[in-house]
Amino acid sequence: MSYSWLDEESTISLDRRANQKTPFYEPIVNTFKEGGYNPNVSYHYNPDVSKYHYGVRHPMKPFRLMLTDHLVIAYKLYEQMDLYQPRRATKEELLEFHSEDYIKFLESVTPDNAKKYAEHLRQFNIGDDCPVFDGMYEYSQIYAGASLDASRKLIAGMSDIAINWSGGLHHAKKHEPSGFCYVNDIVLSILNLLRVHPRVLYIDIDLHHGDGVQEAFYLTDRVMTVSFHKYDGEFFPGTGNHDEVGLGKGKHFALNVPLHDGIDDESYISLFKSIMEPVITNFRPTAIVQQCGADSLGCDRLGSFNLNIRAHGECVKFVKSFGIPMLVLGGGGYTPRNVSRLWCYETSVMTNVKLNSRLPEVLPFRNFFQPDYSLHPNLGDRYDNKNSKKYLENLRNQLLENLRYLRGAPSVEMQEIPPDLQNMTTDEEQEILDRLNRESEYDAHLDEKRYWLNTKDQARVSEQVE
Fold first, then answer.
1. Are 87 and 433 within 8 A, CB to CB?
2. Helices 458-465 and 336-351 meet at what angle, rounded to 10?
3. Which of 53, 171, 197, 260 is catalytic?
4. Banded pLDDT at 427 (limits 50, 70, 90)
5. Helix residue spans in 256-324 (DSSP H)
C-alpha cells in the first residue's frame, strides 16, 4: 500500500511535537539484563472500562478486562506492583492527535440520536466494526486515560514498566475509528513519551497489522514501528507488507513482518528474537511501547495462528530483558477466557513471579475457565502451519537487509523536561478529575441505558464470553 498521500493533516510526524527538542537520555547498553533485573512495575486499571458493551454479536468484549483483573488479584500479583486507578483522558488530551471535528462527533453521538448524525456516521466510518454504543466516548476516554497515566509514570521515573491492558487500540486514525478502535491511545502515549524521550520503539504482536500507529509516525525517524501480523493482502486492515518501510526522514523506520496462517511457537519466537535484537541494538530506543494483542493466540475467535500463552509471553519477556523503560498495552483478543489468561501471565512475566498453572480456587467467574481450569491450555493445534522454513528464512533475510539501511540512532537537541511532565502534582490531577466529574456527573450518577456488569449479571456475561 502506498503512503505517498500522507501530509501534515493526516500524520503527526511532521508536527512540531514529533520533532521538538528533547532532554538527553543515555543510550542503552547493548546487553541483556536478565537474571538480576527487578523492575518497578505499575498497573493502571479503571474498573469502569469493563462495563461497556459494543453489542451482543460484536466480538469485542470489554468484559475480558474484568476477567484479567480478577486473575491478577487471585494470583496476588498486585503485591508486586504499584496500583493506579487512572482518570479519564480529557478532550484536550485526545486532541493531541485526533481532529477536533472527530472528537466532537464522538462526544455528541449516541444510539438515541444517531439518525440525526447520519451524514457524520458515513463521514467517520461508523458501522458494524465500530458501532455507536452507549458510553462510547467515555469508554474511549477511560482506556486512553489509563495509557496516558502509564506513560506519565514512565516519564517521571516512578515506573520502569507500566501496564495498561485496556489500551493498545492500534487501528484508530486521526480522523476516524477503525477495527473496533475509536481513540488511538498508543499514538497519544508515544507523543507524550516523545516530549522527553528522543527515540521510542513501538512493537506490535497482535494478529492484525498496527496500521494506525505506523501511519501516524510514517514520516519520522524518532519512532520506529515493528509489527508482526497476518498478511495476505486482503486480511484486515490490508496493510503491513514488508515493503512498507517509511517515507522521508522515516524511511526504514517502519518494519513489517507479514506472516501466514498457523505459525507455531518455535517459529514465531525464533523469528521475533532474530529481528528484535538487531532492531533494539541499532535503533537504541530510550523507551519501548509493547502492544500485546491476544488475537495472535491459537483458538482465538477471529484468529488463525497457533501460538500458546507461554510463547506469546516469551516475546514480551525478551523485550523486557533489555531493561529499557517499557509501556505494556493490550490490544485485540476475542476469546475472553484466553485473553485474560494471557495478560495475567504476562503481568507475572513483568513482575518476575512464577504462577501455578492451576487457576486459584477463589476466583470470580471461575466457571468460564472450565473444564481444565488451567492458565496454560493447549492452543497450538488448530491450524496447519502455512509458514514454510524457506519462507521464514527468506523473510528474515529481507528484514535484516532492510535494517542495514537503518541510519544511526537519530540524535535530538537537548532541553529541560517540560514542567508539566515532571509528574503532575496531586492537586493538579484532582482538579482535572473534579472537572470531569462535574461535566458528566461521572461518579454521582450512572446512565440507566448503559450496559453495566456485576456479579449478579452472570447470564449476560456468559452470553458475551461465548
1. yes
2. 90
3. 171
4. low
5. 265-283, 309-320
295 labelled as ligand-binding?
yes
Predicted confidence band of residue 38 (pLDDT cuts 50, 70, 90): confident
Q: How far apart are the first and last CA of the chain?
A: 36
171 is catalytic: yes
Residue among 334, 344, 338 nearest 379 (CA): 338
Alpha carbons 347 and 146: distance in angstroms, whole number: 16
127 assigned to some structural domain:
yes
In which domain, by residue range, is 179 found? 35-465
Q: Is 175 annotated as a binding residue?
A: no
Tens of pLDDT, residue by residue over 130-152, are: 999 999 999 999 999 999 999 99
**208 is an annotated ligand-binding site residue:** yes
What pTM does this model have?
Answer: 0.86
Q: Between 83 and 31, whose confidence is greater?
A: 83
User: Residue 83 is part of a domain; what is its CATH number?
Assistant: 3.40.800.20
What is the average pLDDT across 223-230?
99
Q: Let me know if residue 21 belongs to a domain.
A: no
Computed over every residue of the chain, the mean pLDDT equals: 87
The reported pLDDT for the residue numbered 408 is 65
- Is residue 15 in some structural domain? no
300 assigned to a ligand binding site: no
